[in-house]
Amino acid sequence: MLDTWTLQIFGRDRLDYFCSNTFNYLTRRLNPFLWSYDLQARVLQRRKETPEVVSFELLPNQYWQAPQAGQYIELSYQVAGQNLERAYSISAHNQHSFWITVKRQGLVSSALHETLQVGDVLKLRGPLGQFVYRGQKSLLLICAGSGITPCFAILADLLAMPAELRPQIQFYAQFSHPQDTIFAETLKQWRAEGLQLDLAYSQTPAAGTLPAIKIENFSALFPHFEQQDIYLCGPEGFKQTVIQALENLNFPAERLQIEHFGGLQTAEVDWSESEPLPEVYFSAYNYRIQMRPEDRQKTLLELGLEHGLNLEKGCRKGYCGSCKLVLHAGQVQGQTQGKAVYICSAYAKSERVVLGY
Question: What end-to-end distance do the CA atoms of the chain give, in Å?
């Protein structure tokens, strides 16, 4: 394919310079994939992973920046005449292309299964997200269902490192039935090579696998969790089980990384006029904010930014994790995962709120 050859031969930086200096009506008509103002990607391959999961290899144009393993993209796809957006983790990547792995559920994912073909072009944003390896010495990756995708990408990158630089790794993946196992052959190969990799099936237990995670069996399944940094991704119910287990075991919230998709649309806080206005303390900045009446419906992120704090921000939809802080005292309303607070989608809800790392 000409686009693939052009990107590989010239590289994205040189191609960006060339296209930006030759952009006109004619060049855009000749090749709207390269002579474009938009980040786009062309489908190179479809690969069936399970009866309900398909992976797509995508070739992005010159606007693409190399991702970190664990990040995601947002793509736009037309369904029933509407342009809808959906976030998908990057399950693998190389110098030229990357893969997303899509489970058939919801409008956009089902449409991709049914209609997206090799050669089609998608508009997208990214790479995005903070669910990435941060140099810790001992990792426990816990995932379920299609939540395996960012953990799989992180694990693949770590296994490509020299053995002497690689952290200690434990990997746990849970599915409903054996036939639902995503990346089954690669997982089998890694396990045969000596990786501590465990599978579990919640509906059809199988020989040689672990039990499904429950609040009461967590410490038995993961006896070394106190020495590990934990990465968690999966369906909401699964994540809440793990979060509750870790809270019961007093695991530090700052050592738990959670990938969360499907940003929560949080209703405004229903304040009573008799309630005292909260004081919000951002401990990392040693900065206190006494809220005023006009601050009642501002998110914690909006509040901090208005006071000049250099807070991390990304999608502002409650799922990329860039803005995540740890709740040390008080109560908030909105997007939380245990003690982790997504401040772009959360509001102060008690007289005193303390947020830090």
Answer: 48
